Amino acid sequence: MAQCCLAGLWLRHGFYDESHVISQDIETPTGGFWHAIVHRREPDYGNARYWFRRVGSHPIFPDLNNAAIAAGWPDSALWDAKHFVDKVENVMRVGKTHENHALCIAVQEIEWRLLFDYSWKNSL
């Protein structure tokens, strides 16, 4: 999990290659989650969807879903990471003028914070 923290920190500061090198070698759902985010941010949306399929359900999904809804994301019973990749892809096709651009950025921030906190707490 300490390696997950490193992958997350590299990602946070825009060093996608460094984050990718670390996360691709972590064969856990959390490592796969970081790996998927790297691909979504590159952007390589198909690869991001592949890695989110491998992640399956992650322990942060309920908190992520609730926090995303509080931020304005459409209400849903469960967090769907692949659907979020679809939304980000659609928003990025239009760019900053898309009505959901700021919301996608806010949800990605929430996602990073929750996943980093989870990684940190489980690395101790």
Question: Could you characterize what this model shows?
Answer:
By secondary structure, the chain is mainly α. The protein has one domain. Helices cover 72% and strands 0% of the residues. The chain has helices spanning 2-12, 16-23, 29-41, 45-55, 61-71, 81-94, 101-121. Helix 1 (2-12) runs antiparallel to helix 2 and helix 4 packs antiparallel against helix 6 (81-94). The radius of gyration is 14 Å and the shape is globular. It starts with a helix and ends with a helix. The model has no long low-confidence stretch (mean pLDDT 96).
Itemize the secondary structure elements and their pairings:
Blueprint: H1 2-12, H2 16-23, H3 29-41, H4 45-55, H5 61-71, H6 81-94, H7 101-121
Helix pairs in contact: 1-2, 1-3, 1-7, 2-3, 3-4, 4-6, 5-7
Tally the beta strands. Answer: 0
Q: Mean of residue pLDDT?
A: 96
Strand proportion? under 5%
Shape: globular
Share of residues in helices: over 70%
Number of domains: 1
Low-confidence parts? none
What is the radius of gyration computed over CA atoms, rounded to a whole number of angstroms?
Answer: 14 Å
List the secondary-structure elements in sequence, H or E.
HHHHHHH
Features:
about 120 residues, mainly alpha
Quick synopsis:
With 124 residues, the protein is an all-alpha fold.
